[in-house]
UniProtKB/TrEMBL annotation:
<dbReference type="Pfam" id="PF04788">
    <property type="entry name" value="DUF620"/>
</dbReference>
<feature type="region of interest" description="Disordered">
    <location>
        <begin position="16"/>
        <end position="93"/>
    </location>
</feature>
<feature type="compositionally biased region" description="Polar residues">
    <location>
        <begin position="27"/>
        <end position="37"/>
    </location>
</feature>
<protein>
    <recommendedName>
        <fullName>Lipase</fullName>
    </recommendedName>
</protein>
<dbReference type="InterPro" id="IPR006873">
    <property type="entry name" value="DUF620"/>
</dbReference>
């Protein structure tokens, strides 16, 4: 009888055969099958049998043997079920007016409920799917040496805290031996609350409203990563080959990201201690705070004006991006991370509109994987705050995500640079972070951005006339 293969054996075989993430993306992502999906289908078909003895040790490193096929089953990535094509501007136009109307309707029809759900999902995936860290870091750069002489106390304290974090996470020598990494996890996303100047609408029956899914992440030195995240029937791809960052969504297609190469924020949430330490290498210690009853040091990192300017485009300007890391005084580990960036959008003489996106992530359940401390669960709370124009026109959206890590492994055999090749249909035009906002201000150029902004403004002026009873 044919002996069944384990997941990592299947991974190695597929990579050797050339079916890596990069190879599979030589065609359009909307038309080519994902290697992750094929591996998970194989995993699901073999889940009824035991792993071969010679793979038990390799699989046990992740600390979990749950079937993978439950979360990342094959997903449609082209036209949506209602017939809208990828990139269809009429359908993609999830303007804030339409989105608000769906949120505030008390007894919406089945069609409007479906539209609102799709709009919510796009908002969730756009903001929470694959956000990037504030600044570029390279794991090949050594951490700064602890220096007290002629060094501000805020800087030297931060260096000391990072040395403690590196030691608590497994040590610099062990972390330097990691050449590549793999992680797989499950998650749930929910748009939990929507606020206007006069009303606050909370999600009812949040357990049923939450969108479930999962993600798979690969990383490789230097500065390469690739992630697939599937939630609620839609899938987001993002990757970096060390020179450029790209992203693919069903409604925007594949585009390069503005600015310098930056790490995936999801990897900093307890999955990549070495990149996390490098991220805060130039941070300052600004004080202490209790997080869930635990005393923590606070490190603060700000993106410099040059980096912010490189990430801006047309009427969308990134004003600031600040990252705070909360490191436990007891364990030395990162237990909480908060980052906030502010975007100003102004076009054709119109009044400026500001968007502030704040992501708070709490990291839990640290467990060693091959000696490296990995956070195996956590949750994020995202607040998307829009203000400007009239004083009484602000809106605030609160979103939540919980995740658990199912498998982690380091130095996966067969993983190569070919796994991080950008998609063949990658558009040359870059998209700024304004594309994550829930309206047509995500335009493909300054001209289209201004045109869409005018349409959105017309819609938004009517939202005060909506009658809402709660």
């Amino acid at each position: 009888m044919e002996r069944k293969q384990g997941f990592f054996s299947a991974l190695k075989e597929e990579v050797v055969r050339g079916l890596s993430p990069g190879r599979s993306r030589t065609r359009s992502p909307a038309r080519s099958g994902s290697p992750i999906t094929s591996l998970l289908r194989r995993k699901k078909s073999n889940s009824s049998s035991n792993f071969a003895p010679n793979h038990e040790q390799l699989i046990s490193r992740s600390g979990s043997l749950r079937p993978l096929g439950e979360t990342l089953t094959p997903l449609m990535e082209g036209p949506d079920p209602d017939g809208g094509e990828v990139g269809d501007s009429k359908r993609v136009g999830s303007s804030i007016g339409h989105w608000m109307k769906g949120q505030l309707s008390r007894t919406p029809s089945a069609a409007s409920t479906a539209y609102s759900k799709r709009s919510d999902l796009r908002l969730l995936l756009g903001v929470m799917g694959a956000p990037l860290a504030p600044v570029h870091v390279s794991t090949s750069d050594p951490l700064p040496h602890l220096s007290i002489k002629d060094t501000p106390i805020e800087t030297s304290s931060a260096q000391y805290i990072l040395q403690q974090y590196t030691a608590a996470s497994g040590g610099q020598k062990l972390q330097s031996s990691i050449k590549n990494a793999y992680a797989m996890g499950k998650l749930k996303m929910l748009a939990s609350e929507f606020e206007t100047p006069t009303k606050v609408v909370k999600s009812r029956n949040s357990a049923r409203a939450a969108e479930s899914g999962g993600f798979v992440l690969w990383q490789m030195n230097p500065d390469m990563w690739y992630v697939e995240l599937a939630v609620g029937g839609s899938k987001v791809h993002a990757g970096c080959n060390g020179k450029l960052v790209w992203r693919h969504t069903p409604w925007l297609g594949a585009h390069t990201a503005k600015g310098t190469v930056r790490p995936l924020r999801r990897a900093l949430q307890g999955l990549d201690p070495r990149s996390t330490a490098s991220m805060f290498a130039n941070a300052r210690c600004i004080g202490e705070k209790k997080i869930n009853g635990e005393d923590c040091f606070i490190l603060k990192l700000c993106a410099d004006p040059h980096t912010l300017k490189a990430r801006s485009e047309g009427p969308a300007e990134i004003i600031r991006h600040v990252l705070f890391g909360y490191f436990s005084q007891k364990t030395g580990l990162l237990v909480h991370m908060e980052d906030s960036h502010l975007t100003r959008i102004q076009s054709n003489g119109a009044e400026a509109v500001y968007w502030e996106t704040t992501i708070n992530s709490f990291l839990d359940d640290y467990r060693p994987v091959e000696g490296i401390m990995i956070a195996h669960s956590g949750r994020s709370v995202v607040t998307l705050f829009r203000f400007g124009e009239m004083a009484m026109s602000h809106t605030k959206t609160r979103m939540e995500e919980t995740w658990t890590i199912e498998e982690v492994a380091f130095n996966v055999p067969g993983l190569s640079v070919d796994c991080f090749i950008p998609p063949a249909d990658l558009k040359s035009g870059s998209i700024s972070e304004a594309c994550e906002l829930p309206q047509d201000e995500r335009g493909k150029s300054a001209i289209s951005l201004a045109t869409h902004r005018a349409k959105v403004a017309a819609l938004e002026k009517t939202h005060d006339s909506w009658k809402v009873e709660i």
